[in-house]
């Protein structure tokens, strides 16, 4: 049990309106109201997007049916990078403003982020074998995403490596902020170096890089996976808050029994 002053019961104020969400009771009430609709929206969106991507979207004239891997690979890549940016924001909130829920959310976020990054690498390898003739190359984009995967794993391991929960959260936050320098490398590696990986096609402004028949189901898949990502992280954070509160009650009950014991 974390017995440091930085507990959920007595959270120091954060700037602006963030201090409202440092209250565990308010957080639990909010997630109790929004978690189920979020999960239902994720399931419905993913179901419709999967049908759209697998059965209605046309095959690519060069890649054929292999292009359908993109409908999982690209959302996983975006979630891996966007999730890590969220981890960095939580780390700033933890280190500067001592936001207690930021520690719990970051702790629950890193395993989910590692999972989506692993899916990004796996689906990229599945696509690379028929397109490049190999499962893996030490390409700048692939290597930087692999580094991102190890950063996710490192954070997940580091925050759980200390008996002192606050110290583990602090070390994990420092690692997360150091790892932010890898995000521009992942994003711009295809522009900075001559790589096998194709350049950005969705966000190109000069000319459309993807037909709308593929772009729209891709965006639908991204929304569905994003909603599912958020639902999983919120559910994990909610469970962590409840576990922390139960432990606090158990410790308080134990202390009372010791106080009245003859």
TrEMBL record:
It comes from the Bacteria. Its main location: membrane. Residues 41-197 form the Cytochrome c assembly protein domain. The chain crosses the membrane at residues 34-56, 76-97, 109-128, 140-162, 174-194, 214-241. It is found in: Cell inner membrane; Membrane. The keyword Transport applies. Keywords: Cell inner membrane, Cell membrane, Cytochrome c-type biogenesis, Membrane, Transmembrane, Transmembrane helix, Transport. It is a multi-pass membrane protein. InterPro entries: Cyt_c_assembly, Cyt_c_biogenesis_CcmC, Cyt_c_biogenesis_CcsA/CcmC. Belongs to the CcmC/CycZ/HelC family. Required for the export of heme to the periplasm for the biogenesis of c-type cytochromes. PANTHER family: CYTOCHROME B_B6 PROTEIN-RELATED (PTHR30071:SF1), HEME EXPORTER PROTEIN C (PTHR30071). This is Heme exporter protein C.
């Amino acid at each position: 049990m974390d017995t440091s002053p930085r507990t959920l019961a007595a959270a120091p104020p954060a700037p602006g309106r963030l201090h409202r969400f440092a209250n565990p009771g308010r957080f639990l009430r909010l997630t109790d109201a929004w978690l189920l609709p979020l999960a239902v929206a994720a399931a419905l969106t993913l179901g419709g997007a999967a049908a759209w991507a697998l059965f209605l979207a046309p095959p690519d004239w060069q890649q054929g049916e292999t292009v359908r891997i993109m409908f999982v690979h690209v959302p996983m890549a975006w979630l891996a990078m966007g999730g890590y940016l969220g981890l960095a924001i939580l780390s700033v909130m933890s280190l500067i403003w001592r936001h207690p829920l930021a520690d719990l959310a970051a702790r629950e976020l890193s395993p989910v982020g590692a999972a989506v990054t692993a899916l990004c690498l796996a689906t990229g390898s599945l696509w690379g074998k028929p397109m490049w003739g190999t499962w893996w190359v030490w390409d700048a984009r692939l290597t930087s995403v692999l580094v991102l995967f190890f950063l996710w794993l490192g954070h997940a391991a580091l925050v759980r490596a200390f008996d002192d929960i606050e110290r583990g959260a602090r070390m994990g936050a420092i690692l997360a902020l150091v790892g932010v320098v890898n995000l521009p490398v992942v994003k711009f590696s295809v522009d900075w170096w001559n790589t096998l990986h194709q350049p950005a096609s969705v966000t190109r402004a000069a000319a459309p890089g993807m037909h709308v028949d593929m772009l729209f189901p891709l965006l639908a898949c991204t929304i569905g996976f994003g909603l599912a990502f958020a639902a999983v992280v919120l559910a994990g954070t909610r469970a962590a808050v409840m576990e922390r509160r139960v432990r606090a009650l158990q410790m308080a009950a134990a202390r009372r029994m010791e106080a009245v014991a003859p």
